[in-house]
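I have been asked to look over a protein record a colleague put together. What it holds is a sequence and that sequence's fold in token form. Please read both lines and tell me whether the tokens look consistent with the sequence. I do not need a full report, just your reasoning and any doubts. This is what I was given:
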Amino acid sequence: MPTFTKCSTTLMVILTTILFMLYNYTREIPRISAPIPPKLWYKTGPKGLSDQSESWLRECLHKNPMHDTQILTDETGDEYVSLHYAHRPDIVYTYLGLQIPILKADFLRYLLLFAEGGVWSDLDVSCEVPIAEYVAREYRHADVGLVVGWEFDVGWGDNFIRQFASWTIMARAGCVHLGVVIDEIVAAVRSKALVWGVGVEGLTIEMVGDIIDLTGPRRLTGGVLRSLEKIRNEAVDMQSISSLMEPVLVEDVLILPGFAFAASSNNYVNGSGVALVTHHYAGSWKNHRGGEM
């Protein structure tokens, strides 16, 4: 049986105190999560790239030579989701079941960014500056996990619904806010199917209501804001993130002014800042099928 001397007891107390201090010190160190990786995501439809889309894409690649670029098709998108979300059969079932192309395209961008991070860009978007400039200099050492820009923010009067642009989104892998968006889409799609008494594969564009609300910009906006409210345990002060002329960081979400991603959708009386991308509004999904014809 071991004998404890006064010396050994004192030593144990000292060691215990040191370990306790180290434990609490490491708990207090700010943990900066993984950065947003240099990945650029696109997806083509059945017709592939148009000449104009290819031109915009090449221009963007030229401005971002260090980015790993992935261009998915309908088939490779299905394969990606099946592989990377095998642990979430509810997601796989919902995604593969959807027969409306725009719903799948919306859903896919959130799934890609949540799985691996990077930048999603629609094919009708041109890059005006390198992606490295999307995050303003003063925030480049901050813990930024999601970058979104207002689509509608300035010049719309008082009675309008603000929403983030979804044609360009920047995020790190595992972004908790996109996780909320994904879970909400799964629940909303299942709810629509239940109301109509069909499987997910039986949903038509007439059944799903406003696509913008179901999977599009308002779903993105609402999901991100609800996620922030849950983290902060209080409502987001909309006044503090509206009518922006400079980026605003809320927790780890960097919200850009309307001119950054959607200059043509906002009206600045006294001028604006630099447009980072230009959205050319191809609108290939605006038909009775919800996708390329």
Summary: The chain has a mean pLDDT of 89. The first helix runs from residue 6 to 28.
